[in-house]
Fold these 2 entries.
Entry 1:
Amino acid sequence: MSENFIFSRFGRKYENQTGIGQLMEDLGNLRPGMSMLGGGSPALIPEVEEAWREILSKFTSSNFWDSLLGKYETPSGKEETLEALASLLSSETGTKIHKDQIAITNGSQSAFYLLLNFFSGHFEDGSFRKIFLPVLPEYIGYLDQPIYSNSFAYSLGQVKTTGEDTFRYELDPSSLENWDDEKNPLGCVALSRPTNPTGRVASSEELEKILSFSRKRNIPLFLDNAYGYPFPGIVYSEQGLFHKEGMIQGFSLSKIGLPGVRTGFVLGDPEIISALNKANAVLNLASGNLGQFIALEFINSGEWLRLSRDIVRPFYRKKRDLAISCIRKEWKNKIRYSLHESEGAFFLWAKFSGLNRKISELYPILKENGVIIVPGKYFYPTPVSQEPFAEECVRISFAREDQEIQEGIHKIGKVLSSFAE
Ligand SMILES: Cc1ncc(COP(=O)(O)O)c(C=O)c1O
């Protein structure tokens, strides 16, 4: 490109490589023998792959091919899939949900891009409103999405020690009670449940408090269920699906094993869904067909429940138990660490103390020694990402082969112990 071309402010946001962008490239350029505990991809589970093969084998008649590959769907999505999802969500939430409350998008990531920008930034009344993250850290993928910089407001939550080497970030009710709306006007609230990176599953009591906070301000609460209910249902605690009026829910086909089809769903009020569909038409004309066809079969056959409950959740629970016991074996008495309670998703969030280097400085050394993790600071918006505590944490994925998990944890222990004071 000519050096004379000048990017707009919007373009400049994407012109330079971001830290996380660099990291994502690292994840794609692995040396053989590397322990890849950094990525966000789900594991390849044979029983799940078999289910996709079975569904795809049904799409062989020319009828299917014509409509699957040969035509654009409408921007709102395939009618039958919308109906199937509305019926599933009606029974799962216990409220009557109509198909005009559901949008199908190219992955839930793109839905969040639109929704977060619908409800943050400059408003008609002259205000600049932010996205509130009630308990940090939060999903990395939200942080670069707002068009305007400085679009996040947050509460750090409270750190509660739950065991000898475990803790939990809890909602800090006083931060909600004492919120200064003059100083920090809000346009929406967002949280992932289970939370990527911590594996935290916000309790229904916490969600009630957050919902009442958002209702008081007449702003939507986005709940991102990418790892949660109804599928893939990677929740190890007793918590269930939480849905109430005024909420906008995000769902995804990715974490049950289909990240490549790029299909997500949004449940919300019809006016919001209608705006989302219009924006989807501008950006994409329509969402991809394959995920919509698979979803229809997946929901109508009941496979969503069998895979989530009987295969995927037990699979990750076993991996989680392996990773935690391996950490206890490898790290105890070598480094000072504490793990966030693992209540869902497929990550562990580890907090270290007594290291004489920042985690982001140790990242290249870990990489050199054959293990990739994600430094914690990327899960905090600026300026929190510069705080010392953000440099004491890492996210570790356990959606990997057992041996890779064990070797990776061993390598982390070995490297970090040489920087322990
Ligand atoms: C919490 C969370 N939400 C949303 C997404 C986006 O997923 P997708 O766009 O594949 O639906 C991810 C992906 O890693 C995630 O971790």
Note: The chain has two domains: 9-45+307-417, 51-58+67-303.
Entry 2:
Amino acid sequence: MSNTLLKIENLSRHFGGLAAVSELNFHVGEHEILGIIGPNGAGKTTAINLVSGVIRPSGGRVLFDGEDITGLLPHVLARKGLVRTFQSTTVYGSQTVYENAVRGAYLGLYPGFVAAFFNTRRARRLREDTARRVGELLDWLNLSEVAHLQAGSLPYGYQKTLGMVISLAAQPRIVMLDEPVAGLSAEEADHVRDTILKIRARGITVIVIDHNIRFMKGLCDRVMAMNQGHELTTGAPLDVLANPKVIEAYLGRGHAAAHRI
Ligand SMILES: Nc1ncnc2c1ncn2[C@@H]1O[C@H](COP(=O)(O)OP(=O)(O)O)[C@@H](O)[C@H]1O
Ligand SMILES: [Mg+2]
């Protein structure tokens, strides 16, 4: 068993009277891929929004590498190595692939930092380092050839990969992906799965939310199933998917995801 990188203790978030996440406990080992599944409204997105600082918890703690990081802001967390990707908001269609990726590299810096040091030697070195790092990333994920095209002109699958490049450019230790294959074909989903496995092979820890069972089975070391803000069960993907409580949670809602499990 590898070291625990992320530990979530009794995490809760209420919206008015609704407990979107309630007394949630889980951990993620270093270099692990942890999946989160559960019907719509289960609290999956809220859980990673809490961990990544997008929203503040009503209660509980988030420990990253032993440090209490509860309630810190996303850019502070990005600098510490926690980065969350968003479903589609991270890719700017009118920017080139390269410009999008460079923006990711500055995720962990305070707004204004780059501008303030724009003409200094330090800034020049930062820009050169960034350009090299981004170039390597684009190369590594086979996006070099399209680096100078407008991101919006690329097929959707490429944009998903670019979304990952943006997060990786911030040099994270852990990335959190919310439904990375929603809307993709089976072939594109396989490509995203391979990309995430490559990301892990680089030593990066991954939390991934998705409904696509085939995708999750081929990717995750462990899966946590959630329902109504709570953890239902956590374990090996096949065990979790076969768990009657998990099946009931999906079927009980009677929504589209029930047909896919
Ligand atoms: N900003 C918000 N304000 C009010 N309610 C919210 C907000 N975000 C999420 N919720 C509610 O919290 C519950 C969990 O939502 P969410 O975390 O998005 O679920 P999931 O990602 O599993 O589909 C839902 O009932 C949702 O309507
Ligand atoms: Mg969600």
Note: The chain is about 40% helix and 25% strand.
